[in-house]
Request: fold
Amino acid sequence: MAKKQRRPPARNGGGAGKKAKVGGREALEQEARATFFGGEEDEEISSSDSEAEGERDRGGDGGEEETVEQARMRYAQKYLEEARADERAAKKKQGYRYDEKRDVLDEDEDDDDDDDDDGGGDDDSEDGRVGARLRAAREAEAASAFERLGARLEAMGFDGDVAASRKTVLAGHRGPVTCVAICEASGQVWSGSKDNALLLHDASTGARVRTLLPRWPQRASEDVEHARAQAKRGGARRTDGAFDDGGDGAPPGDLAPRQAREAEVLAVACSADGRYAATAGSDGLVHVWDARSARLAHSLRGHKGRVTCLAFRDDAHARLGGGDDDGLGGGDASSQLFSGGDDGSVKHWGAKAGAYVETLFGHEAPVAALDCAYEEKPLSGGRDRTARCWKIRDESHLVYRSPTAGGLGSSVDACRVLDKDRFLTGGDDGALSLWSARRKKPVVSVKRAHGAGAAAQALGESARDDVSAHVPRWLQSVAAPRHADVVASGSCDGAVRLWTVDDKDAAKQVLEPFAALPQLGFVNGLAAPRDAAFLAAAVAKEPRLGRWEKVAKAKNCVVLYPLLNSGSAL
Reply:
């Protein structure tokens, strides 16, 4: 059992609206911490309460670990050194001379006597200029952090029926489509289904680019049967991620060993930098792909049972200032991958090296949803009626329990992080909930967001009978561009629904219906790019993780709805 690490003391400065009454380098370090880490505190919810919910195993050599505050100080000091170097280089180009002994430039010679005493408060000093640069960067980030897409769509006269008439249908799947992800770097849409297929489409043209995994029904060849037998016997794993062919001479890129172990694809995710993609499903493996070459890089084993959700770390700070060190020896921050499955665990992987990092324990039932943004704090949802925010460096996590209404269960089957303080969840109680990271209960919750009753068998159809009308429709997917006020949710009521949220600083938080995009079938997955040019929906005849209901007239496909770009998907 891993030893719990005590939570470091709360830091004093760095908030956007606070002025630290300290001077010199300490003040600049606080500015740098505020720029990178926001200066937020955990107020109304304690991580110590969450630690009792479960333990987790952590990899490593057992040595003394760096605390959260030490890591923040290290990144802040590194950034300050780079900022000072940039300032000095700029001044040298202007003819200034740097005095190494006094650590100042000649131009600031008259003011530096005071600066050494009061901590560099003069804006003309080097520290003053660096501090102003940090504050400007933080203010620019805050100003652009929340984009009002709803107002832009309303100004365009956005209409759900018109957008649905201009949708692009990505065909190719023979079975129910379970998941969809967007690789913004390449402009491609990745989708998986229960027919074992993994397809790539071009978002701008709608054309299929490649079929990465074979589809059924197709008769298994002798090579496939032989590979299946090898896999059951625990065939050796090669460095390219495939299993050894047992000496039958099959080339490394042969589909037979891959088809032998691939099964229903239940989850897909793409990294923020466009280098990696990951897929998982009923085979219990996590497959990492090189998104640029569309070749299988690693097959990671560790889950006991189906793997139902995946998420790469999507962190703007990691891309801008984090460098290649993710703090866990796993390589680039954008290659940090998290997976969850029926075994109730969340696993942390390094996609770049195909390495296992750690397992996060706490959920008491299967994990069904994952998202990760902002530092190393993945968000997970499960059938135990909880959403959990994992603090990787603190070795703890926060627990958010979904309220139970009317004796119905309220699992968390979909989740999405909006910003540093808020996230969304949806589940089998049909409610779309907006949470604050600082509160234990939802800030706002829309009950029966997609109505009640059986799955709609035709567009515009209401509940078929009074008995089923008492049961809300399962909310199976949510999506939203980061830092935006438009949210999409999917169920089986014959429409993808759009909602708007207020700024996190608004006096009263609301979730208001904005538009509805007609779509027949089960909406098993949703994805939206950062620019909100379009919305991708994974549509199927049956639910993602079961077959308890069916919409016969629905098509198994991926649908792209134009949003800000009214003419085409991209």
